[in-house]
Every structure is written in structure tokens, then in C-alpha cells.
TrEMBL record:
Record's protein name: Sarcosine oxidase subunit beta
Entry keyword annotation includes Ribonucleoprotein: no
Key words, A-Z: Cytoplasm, FAD, Flavoprotein, FMN, Nucleotide-binding, Oxidoreductase
Residue ranges constituting the Rhodanese domain according to the UniProt record: 34-78
Enzyme Commission designation: 1.5.3.24
Signal peptide: none
Enzyme class: oxidoreductase
Length: 417
């Protein structure tokens, strides 16, 4: 079924009886060419590009809960390509380009909105570092504009420019950055993959990985054993647990990250604003809710809910940036499990087990990575060779030092990325 304006009109005039389920609820077969563990954004996008770009359709995505129930449906939806270091820079640039054609490609409205992201700075030194980052982004072929305090104030007058601790000196604007509706991204990729023959299997937890003589043979699941020539572990916050089923110990820690949304308000914030010093970021959803988030809860956990000290910290940061926010009522908050890597960059690589692949380490930023991650992971699985856009995301970099990408310059600390 294709979505179009004409279709909406026709359905509206005929009682909306012609809409169909967006994907088949498949039952598992005994064998597949490729099994993808994890029905989040990255798993679904991998399945989609395997089918679309490489013609590999005998594929199953195994999801222990429901599609989109993980972090892909829990994030604050920011999409940007403002990375500095080689490796990340070309990868996120590739991802943003895929985002820009995604709705046409999927024939699905993911509400991608290039409303622009502004990253604030609060000293001359930070401004210099920001300009350097902006130059790197422009060299990569992406956009970046420095805004001084006066220009920024004209654009976003509602910030507290004279906060005693964090006076705002200016900001860097990436106009092509913005937001997208997170769960629609999962649904769009799911629909596209299912239409091309991929089996999407929900309520199917992988409980073991079968390996014989160093070669992957399939998986054990709560719905029985499934044989597979290739298996990809694409489970984000659960990466360490699933990799342990293959006897692997990953350099990944799982931490909780919380987010918040207020009651719906009239349009007030028409950009994404990032306040790095307070580790606070905010945008306004199309429904009117102010969507914002902060820092990690700072202890390893698999609980998809957070604790009150961080709630207090986030509210304080919001008040420091934008005192008017104190009048808004918070409607709800939630948490997601983040797969934190030591250098703040992801892993997309084969493992030492033949036919077993790993996609993890997305830290704070895996939503905007979904299109490129799916493309790069599918390329690796289909061709056996890394995609140029993700060639530095090697698993062995933590042992060999080759390809280390310390984006934040904060050293190998999981909880600082
Ligand atoms: C509060 C919050 C805000 C965020 N904000 C942003 C943002 O603004 N921009 C951005 O780019 N990123 C953001 N992120 C990060 C981003 O959401 C994640 O990095 C990304 O969604 C992770 O990849 P995924 O979508 O594949 O993960 P998930 O959706 O978590 O998918 C993994 C799936 O694997 C399944 N699974 C796990 N174990 C098994 C098993 N044994 N068997 C079968 N299935 C299994 C899980 O149920 C889950 O559905 C944020 C995250 C959070 C929590």
C-alpha cells in the first residue's frame, strides 16, 4: 500500500476502511540467511537496507518485546551531523543525507523537521573550539554558522543571556539539523522491510547463540531454535548481555538516560537548543510539549526508569537556561538504557566468531545514526567488507588503539559520553 495525498482523500471519503497493517506479524521459520537480534531503529534499518540495497530478503528481525519499544521510541529525537573527528564526521554526515531522503525512500511520514540546532557557548575559549568544530563540519560538506550574542538573541530571545554562572556568548547553528518522530522511524523501516519479505518477529527473546567450531549456526529463542548463516547483535543497551551469550565481554556499560515532556504549549521554541554546560537540551514537539533531557544517571543499570536527583539536576539546568520554563508543567518522564562505549563512538564490526556481527556503543546519539547504521551494517553483512562511512568503528580499537575516536576529549570513561 502506498501513502499519498490522493489516498488520504479517498480513504477520508470512503470511511477509512482501506488502511492495512503496516507490517506482517510473522511467525518464525526454522532457518534464515540472516537473523538480526533487536527490533530497534538500528535492527530494523539493517533489515531494510539488506533487502533494499543487497536483495537479501530471507531475513528475520527478532524482538523480545514490541517493535519500537526500546530506545528508538524513548529518545528526544534530535537529528544532527555536527561531529568533529574523522570517523564520526563522515558517518553522521552520511546519516543526515539519508535522513533528507528518508520519507520519500520509505514512503512514510517520519515528521523529519530540519528546524535547526543551536549549540550554545559561554566563554571565548568555548567559542574558539566551536568555530573549529564548525570549520570541520563545513570541510565535511555539512553546514555550520557561528552566531554572536546579538544575532542569537534576535533569533532566540527567551534564553537567559546574563545568567551569572553561564552567560551566553553565542551559538553555533546547524540549519539542516532538527528532529523526527522517533517511533514513526521504527514503523517506517519495519514497513519497508516487511514489504520486501523480511520477517519481523515480536515477543521473541533470544536466549542463546549457537556456535560450532568458531562459526555461528543460529540462535535459541523463547519461540524455539532458529538456524542462520549470519547473526547480527543489534540490541543497544542490552549489548553486553547478548554478546555474553557468544562468550564475549564487551567494552560497553549500560547507563540510564532520562527525558521529560511538558503539557502542550503554544509554539515557543522553533529550534533545538543544546546547553552543553548544563548538559541540557530542549525542543518543542509538533503537539506543543517541550521535550528535554539531561545527563546520565551515572551508574550502570538495566532499569528503564531514572532517579530523582537527576530530575532535579535537569530542572535546574532548564531554569538556568530559560527561566520561563518554570511555568510549564511536566507531564511525564521516562528512561532508556544507553550502551556507553569508552570513546563515545559506536562499534559496527564482525566478531571473532565467523558469521557473527556486532552493532553497539551508540551512547547519547544513536537515533540520528539509525539510517547510516542500518546502511553500514547491512553493507558489512552482505559484502563482508566495511562501508567507507563506518570503517573506523572497529571493535578492536580499544585493544589496539587503531581507530580510537575520543569525540569529547574526556578520555576512556563510559559515563562521560
Ligand atoms: C532519553 C533518551 C534520549 C535520547 N535522545 C537522543 C537524541 O535526541 N538523538 C539521538 O540521536 N539519540 C538519542 N538517544 C539515543 C538513541 O535513542 C539510541 O542510541 C538508539 O535508539 C539505540 O539504538 P536502537 O534504536 O536500535 O535501540 P533500541 O530501540 O533499544 O533497540 C534494541 C532492541 O533490542 C531488543 N532486545 C534486547 N535484547 C534482546 C534479546 N535478547 N532478544 C531480542 N531482542 C532483544 C530490545 O527489546 C530493543 O527493542 C536517546 C536515548 C534516550 C534513552
Amino acid at each position: 500500500m502506498r501513502f499519498s495525498g490522493w489516498r488520504v482523500l479517498k480513504e477520508g471519503l470512503t470511511g477509512n476502511k482501506g488502511w492495512q497493517a503496516h507490517w506482517r506479524d510473522a511467525t518464525p521459520k526454522s532457518e534464515y540467511d540472516v537473523v538480526i537480534i533487536g527490533g530497534g531503529g538500528h535492527g530494523l534499518a539493517t533489515a531494510y537496507y539488506l533487502a533494499k540495497k543487497h536483495g537479501i530478503t530471507n531475513v528475520a528481525v527478532l524482538e523480545k518485546g514490541y517493535l519500537g519499544g526500546g530506545n528508538v521510541g524513548r529518545n528526544t529525537t534530535i537529528v544532527r551531523a555536527n561531529y568533529f573527528l574523522p570517523g564520526n564526521s563522515e558517518f553522521y554526515s552520511h546519516s543526515l543525507k539519508l535522513w533528507e531522503g528518508l520519507e520519500e525512500d520509505l514512503n512514510y511520514n517520519v515528521m523529519h523537521s530540519q528546524r535547526g540546532q543551536i549549540v550554545l557557548f559561554h566563554s571565548d575559549g568555548q567559542g574558539d573550539a566551536m568555530a573549529r568544530r564548525g570549520n570541520a563540519m563545513i570541510n565535511q560538506g555539512d553546514d555550520a554558522e557561528m552566531l554572536d550574542r546579538a544575532a542569537l538573541r534576535r533569533m532566540v530571545p527567551y534564553l537567559d543571556y546574563d545568567n551569572a554562572r553561564f552567560p551566553i556568548y553565542g551559538g553555533m547553528l546547524q540549519r539542516r539539523a532538527g528532529t523526527a518522530r522517533h517511533d514513526a522511524v521504527a514503523w517506517g523501516y519495519a514497513r519497508g522491510a516487511s514489504e520486501r519479505g523480511v520477517d519481523l518477529i515480536q515477543n521473541c527473546e533470544v536466549t542463546g547463540i549457537d556456535i560450532e567450531g568458531g562459526v555461528v549456526k543460529g540462535v535459541q529463542t523463547t519461540r524455539g531454535a532458529i538456524r542462520a548463516r549470519k547473526v547480527a547483535m543489534v540490541v543497544a543497551g542490552r549489548s553486553s548481555q547478548v554478546a555474553a551469550m557468544a562468550g564475549m565481554r564487551l567494552p560497553i556499560e549500560s547507563h540510564v538516560l532520562q527525558a521529560f515532556v511538558t503539557e502542550g504549549l503554544k509554539p515557543a521554541i522553533d529550534h533545538v537548543i543544546s546547553f552543553g554546560m548544563g548538559h541540557f537540551y530542549i525542543s518543542q514537539s509538533d503537539k506543543g510539549g517541550l521535550v528535554f533531557g539531561g545527563d546520565l544517571d551515572m551508574y550502570a543499570s538495566y532499569a528503564a526508569r531514572g532517579n530523582l536527583p537527576l530530575v532535579e539536576h535537569v530542572m535546574e539546568a532548564g531554569m538556568a537556561l530559560m527561566p520561563a520554563i518554570g511555568k510549564a508543567r511536566v507531564l511525564r518522564s521516562w528512561g532508556g538504557i544507553m550502551d556507553m562505549s569508552p570513546d563515545g563512538s559506536p562499534v559496527i564490526d564482525r566478531t571473532h566468531i565467523d558469521g557473527l556481527y556486532l552493532n553497539c556503543g551508540w551512547c547519547y546519539g544513536g537515533f540520528k545514526a539509525v539510517p547510516a547504521s542500518g546502511d553500514v551494517t547491512a553493507h558489512l553483512i552482505a559484502t563482508g567488507a566495511p562501508h567507507t562511512a563506518g570503517a573506523r568503528f572497529r571493535l578492536d580499537r580499544f585493544r589496539t588503539g587503531r581507530g580510537l575516536m575520543d569525540e569529547e576529549g574526556t578520555g576512556s570513561q563510559h559515563n562521560l559520553h
